[in-house]
Amino acid sequence: MYALVEFKGRQYKAEKGALLKVDKIDAEPGSKLDIDSVLLLSRGENEADITVGTPYVAGARVSAVVESHAKDKKIIVFKYKPKKDYRRKQGHRQQYSIIKIEDIAGA
Predict the structure, then answer these.
(1) Distance (Å, rounded) from C-alpha 77 to C-alpha 89?
(2) In what order do the strands lie in the sheet with 10-15?
(3) Is the dihedral of CA 5, 21, 92, 84 positive or negative?
(4) Alpha-carbon span 10 to 95, nearest angstrom
C-alpha cells in the first residue's frame, strides 16, 4: 500500500515505514503530523485497487512522525561574466526534516 501526497508544494511517494526527506518543518522531533492532501491511493497491485483524487482523495490521510532535522551538503553558487572582472561566490546549505510514515488511512 502506498500513497502519493503533496506536502509543502512537493509530491512524495509515502509507504508505511518509509523515511521521507522534506523541507524543514517547524515541529519538534517526535511530534505527530497528519497529511490530508493525498493525490493517489494504491491498496494493492491491480489497477482496480488505485484511487486517483480530483485533485485529492476524499477521506484519505497519511500519519507521520518527525524524526530529526539536519542540513544538506553545501552547494556553491558561482556567477561570473567573462572579460568583465565580475565574479560572485556564495554557498548555501538547505535545511530539511526527516519524517517517518506511520500509517496510511484511506476512504
Answers:
(1) 6
(2) 10-15, 2-7, 38-42, 50-52
(3) negative
(4) 15
Which residue reads 565574479 in cell numbers?
87
Q: What is the largest CA-CA distance in the chain?
A: 62
pLDDT digits (tens, 9 = 90+) for 7-55: 999 999 999 999 999 999 999 999 999 999 999 998 877 777 888 888 8
| Distances from the Cα of 88 to the Cα of 74, 77, 83, 94, 96, angstroms | 16, 8, 14, 19, 26
Closest by CA position to 24, among listed 96, 98, 73: 96
Terminal C-alpha separation, the chain: 13
Number of H helices, E strands in the chain: 0, 10
Q: What is the rounded (10 degree) CA torsion for 22, 27, 30, 36?
A: -60
